[in-house]
Each structure stands twice: as structure tokens, then as C-alpha cells.
Amino acid sequence: MKILIVISLFLSSLNAGASVKRLAQDIKLPTKAMLHKQTITNPAVADTTGVISATAGNITSAAVTLTAGLTSPPVPRNLVITPGTSTVDVAACVISVAGSDFYGASLTEAFTFAGNASTATTGAKAFKTVTSVTFPTNCEDGAFAATWSIGQGEKLGLDRCMGAAGDLAWSTVSGTYEATRATMAVNASSVSANTADFNGTMDASADFDIYFIENFGCRP
Q: What percent of the chain is modeled with pLDDT above 70?
């Protein structure tokens, strides 16, 4: 009798299996978008000297690479390079910053300066670490008295890739909805090029949350 009951239950489960099978085959990824939440903990206000402050680059016409005294941003974000002191010594050149992205993969970005430049150049990539800054040959001329400062910008790095900027759902600061949503930069396959510029003020005490549709294009 017990065997008959077990067989009966088994056959009943097979009859009901059509709907179960259909649901099991569709795990929502092929036909439904998935919302991803990222919390960026207590980002500090943007600055111009957080990575390095008023430091000499070229001291001769030769190229030079700085590796000492560099402080990485507390959270992945873009960088800003500002020439200072004797900016008349700045020559037209491209400065290269190297480090790593959100996942720890190698990352470089080029910052272009015109001759006698005295204003900042803002980067687009989000750096988790900064390991070196390279000034090429003849990046300065004259007395080689220019200095360089590198800070952290307004663009906070995402931990996933997005297919379109419109795939942002909403953003919050300390749990409060931002009526004006964050400004997004997206890239389908490079995580460092996915950033959010929130409208809320970063002050190292508020968590910034962002909800968006990822495209699964850049997970490690």
C-alpha cells in the first residue's frame, strides 16, 4: 500500500511538472532586467591634493615617474590633475597615471596639457589605487619649476558595467531619494569607465546608494 501511495505521488508530480519546468528554464535573466544596488560608503568631498600635493614632475628634460607619496582614493573615483607654482614652465604633453580599477585590474589614463597650462584636467576613469604618475620627456621647459597636484574628482566608480545611462533607476544619499538623479557615464565592458556624479554633497559621513540595471559585461 505504501509503495502505491509513493508511486501515485510521483506520477502526480510529473503531471504538474509542466509549469515547474517552464519556471525552472526561465531564471529571469533572458527576459527580465535585474536591478543592482551599490552602496558607496562615506565618500569624501572632491579635492585637488588628495593623491599628491604640489610635487615636482620633470626636473630636467628627461622623463620621470613618481611612485612615492601617492595616496589612493578611499573609494574608486576619477582623478583631477592641476599644474601649479611656475606654470609658464609647463610644456604641451600627456601625463600618464597608472593604478588599478574596482576589481584590481591594471588601469592607466592619459591627461593632456597644453603649453603654459594653469587649470586642471579632469579624468574620466575611476581609480581604486594610484601607483605611479609618469611625466614624459620635455613635459616642462625653462627652469623646471612647475609643480603638480592630483586630487579625487566628483565621479564615483561603479562596481558593475551598464549598457546605457538611462538604465539608472534612482540614487539616494543617507537614504534620501535624489529628485535630480546622478549624472552617469557608462561603458558596456570596462568597469572603470562607469561612474556616477551624484547631486548630493559628499562629506565623508553619508552613504551614497545607487540602483541601476547592470549588463553583466564586466564582472571579473
A: 86
